Structures are given as structure tokens and as C-alpha cells.
Amino acid sequence: MSATFPLEFPETENREQGTPHTWLTKGDRLEVSRPSLMRGLALLGTYFCLYYATMIGAVADLPLAANLVLGFFNGYMIGMIFIIGHDCGHRAFVPGRGLNWWLGRLAFIPCAHSITLWDVGHNKTHHARTNLKGFDYPWSPMSKEDYDACGPFRRFLERVYRSPFGPLVYYYPQIWLPRLVLPVAHDSRHEWRRHVFDSAFVILGLIATIAGVLVLGQWLAPERPLWLTFVVGWVVPFAVWNYLMALSIYLQHTHPRIPWFDNEDEWSFYNGNIRGTTHVEFPKFTGLMRNVHEHPAHHALPSIPIYKLEQAESKLLDAFGEDVVRYKWTPAAYLAVTRACKLYDFRNHVWTDFQGRPTGARTLPVRLSAARAGRPLRVASAEDRAEDRAD
Fold first, then answer.
1. CB neighbour list of residue 155: distance below 8 Å, 6 or more residues apart
2. For the chain (length 391 residues), average pLDDT per consecutive 10?
């Protein structure tokens, strides 16, 4: 018997909705989009110091259990620095396009991401058509027809990916290697020359990071085998980072109430970026990692720096809270989501199990009123923000 998600949600097919660029006044938008150079540099410096401190601890001459714990926190620090790089990729972390870009390059060294490839896959793909199958690829669900057409090994992989353990293995083969190191994916290879510098930068940065870990380990713990230094100093932290990244993306766009689309006529900015993202509440001690899951505000206005996202999210929830998927993360809640969200029926807008049986309520798309549907649904651009400052 299929597991049915316990919550029922109101259908919203015909309710008139506001549009995502009306949730802030012009003054509010200017305030939450204004980055701070000092705050940004202080955060970046703090997390890089913690990153190197935990790296030293991971390879130091300590009991192996202590090395593993510090290696775990080193992976967590990779994630925190990545968040900064992500904001820099949106030109939102500090003032200045060029400064953001170079700080983003530096922040992406620990996670080995090319910033130009990230720009293609994240800014120009994921944000452009969020939750539109065939365009937005991370954790895009299969339909029952897609799943049945796959071979046995690919079906096995999908079962693994959609299990509670899926984030442990998803990010390496599905996103990082094919899309963020070399320009080989279909959406980046046609302009591969643009990506050559950053791909070389990433590869050299990765080599330098691993070499630094090995040299540091041999200096601090010369009796330890080199392979063990490599495992505790790079493999474990990088695995933790990959897990956290894959889990975050999964949680942000997967839930029995989250709609996905394979028809652009049904998709809209509102359906993809407000109804298609989650607000997941994590404990405050998780720091910036918690703010990442105040995700609807980020999708509605990507120019908001991470350190102002909580302030902006509260305003968005006041405006569109009825349509935002909002819940507290617990192991039980996570397991309920993974049980319910295996495949997606794009015709009936409902999540199903691997047999195609519905596991929750329908995720009907919101249909805007004719007057509002005709208005452009877009994120404020850099030009908009420049006009705001001029005013």
C-alpha cells in the first residue's frame, strides 16, 4: 500500500493572486537589496578562518574520532563559504559587480565550482524557470512514463536518489561533475570559451586544496599514512559538503504540496518561485545554513544578500503565506516527504509512489486573474536597483 502524506491542503486553482514583485514597497526593496561591504567581508573572513581551523584539526595528530568530527565541521564550513559564493554569483553579497565575481571565485575554491558554469546552471536556468521540467534540472522528478521507459539501472538509481539516503550520492554525478567543473553540459558547451578560465581556476584550486591538505597532514601527523590524511582531510569534508548541498536543494523544491510543470503554459513565475519553493524552519544554531531555507524570498528577489533574507522572508510570508509551503524540519517530517515524493503526475499535478499511485493532495497551479496575468512576473534587475538608488 502506498504511503499517503498526512496533510491536506486547500486547492488554489481559481484564487486571485498578487504577483511576486508587489510584496515589497520600493523602499523595502531598496533596503533588503542593499549589500554591506563590511558585513560581507567580515562573514567571508570569519568562515574562511573557521574553514582552515577545522581543516588543521581534521589532519592534526589527534585521535581519529576527533579528526573525523573536525572533518565533518570542515565540510560544514565548505557549505557556509559556498553560500557566500552563491550570493556573489547573484552580485548580491557586497557592492560592486566585479568584487562580487572575484569573491565568488574565491568562495567557490573549497567546493570546486566554476562561477561562470554556476551562473549558467543556477542563475540562467534554475532561477529562470524554477520547477519547469526539461529546463530546471536539480531534483527534477520523473513521471511514471519516464520511469517506466528507463532501464533497470537508471530505475535503481532513481529509487536511491528518492530515498532518505539520496542526498548522500546525488550531487556528485547529477550536478557537480557534469555541470560545474568543465563546460560539457548541453547548456554550456556552445559557449565553452567563456568558461575556460574558470574551469582551469577550479581544477587548479582543487589540486591546490588537496595538496595543501596532504602537506599539512604530513607536517602535523607525519606517522599517519598519506591515504588516511587524504580521507579525513578532504574526502570526508567534501562528502559532508556534497550531502548538505544535495539535501538543501531537495528540501527547497520537494514536498507533497510543491508543484512541478512540464508545460510552460501552466508555469508562471508565481507558481514556480512562490508556490514551488519551501520555507523550512531549522534551529538557529545552524547559522547561515538556516537562512538558505527561507527560500521563497530568495527566489522572488535574488538580489537579497543572505544576511538580510530573514527580514525579507517575513514580509513575503505576510503577503503570500497561504501559498508558501512552510514547516519545521524534523527527521519524521523529512521521512514523510521522501515517502510521498517519488514520481510526479504532471497531468493531474500530484506526487505519486513508484507505482504511480497518488501520495498526497493535488498541487493545482494558481491561475492569475486576467489583469494580473498580463503583468510581467520578473525579478528586479540590476538596472531596476540602479534606478531605485537614483531616485
1. 147
2. 39 44 84 94 96 98 97 97 96 96 97 96 93 94 97 97 97 93 89 94 97 97 97 98 96 96 90 93 78 91 92 91 91 96 96 95 63 34 39 36
Contact 334, 282 (CB under 8 A): no
Q: Identify the residue whose cell numbers are 527561507.
A: 294
Checking DSSP bridges between strand 325-328 and strand 350-352, what pairing results, if any?
unpaired
Q: Using a cut of 0.85, tell me whether the model's pTM lies above it.
A: yes
In one-letter notation, the amino acid at residue 104 is G
Per the structure block, which three cell numbers stand in for 197?
578560465
Between helices 236-253 and 64-89, what is the axis angle to 10°?
A: 50
CB 116 within 8 Å of CB 198: yes
Tell me the C-alpha distance between 302 and 29, whole Å: 11
The answer to whether residues 236 and 58 touch, using CB atoms and an 8 Å cutoff, is yes
| Buried b / exposed e along 66-87 (16+ C-beta atoms within 10 A) | ebebbbbbbbbbbbbbbbbbbb
| Torsional sign, CA 302, 303, 306, 310 | negative
